[in-house]
Amino acid sequence: MAIITDELMRQRLAATRNYCIVILHAGPNKHADGAEKIIWEHGRRNFTLRADGLLSIVCPVSDGSNVAGVGIFNATVEEVTKIMDEDPAVKAGVLVYEVHACRGFPGDSLPK
Fold first, then answer.
1. Contact 101, 23 (CB under 8 A)
2. What is the C-alpha separation between 88 and 20, in angstroms, rounded?
3. Which has the closest alpha carbon to 75: 55, 89, 58?
4. Which residue from 98, 42, 34 is spatially nearest to 66, judged by alpha carbons?
5. Can you tell me the distance from the alpha carbon of 49 to that of 57, in angstroms, rounded to the nearest whole number?
6. Are 96 and 24 in contact (CB under 8 A)?
7. pLDDT, tens digit, for every residue of 11-25?
8. Coil, helix or strand at residue 18
């Protein structure tokens, strides 16, 4: 295992910056007619947000729980709230969301 010194921790913690985490939950219209098409368009929008550099990490959740997904945004809480309020699945009540300010390490990514 790597040895992490106090000095290294201080250096890395000083380099953190603000991000936002969105947690998506199944909404009241999760099983409504046309919900699958709406989720497809939600996914398309996520691809656009990723391409535009706003949505850094997307993790759909398919474990049978009420959690539908998690995303990490490179934007403020206010910006993310505006983005999510315009999401087709949120507007249709297929998904609901919560947004949380957080800090993270620039350059972190999921392993390939």
1. no
2. 20
3. 55
4. 98
5. 10
6. yes
7. 999 999 999 999 999
8. strand
Task: From residue 83, give the alpha-carbon distance in Å to each of 1, 88, 105.
Answer: 41, 10, 23
Helix (H) or strand (E) holding 88: helix 88-91
Closest CA to 44 of 91, 87, 76: 87
Q: Quick one: pLDDT at residue 28? A: 97
pTM of the full structure:
0.91
Residue 106 tokens read as 């620039």
Tokens of residue 65, six digits: 């729980």
The CA distance from 103 to 112, in Å, is 23
Mean pLDDT in the chain? 96
- What is the C-alpha separation between 73 and 58, in angstroms, rounded? 9
CA–CA separation, 20 and 18 (whole Å): 7
Length of the chain as a residue count = 112
Please state, in angstroms and as integers, the Cα–Cα distance from residue 57 to each residue in 2, 33, 40, 47, 84, following that order: 26, 29, 18, 11, 15
User: CA-to-CA distance for 68 and 61, rounded, in angstroms?
Assistant: 5
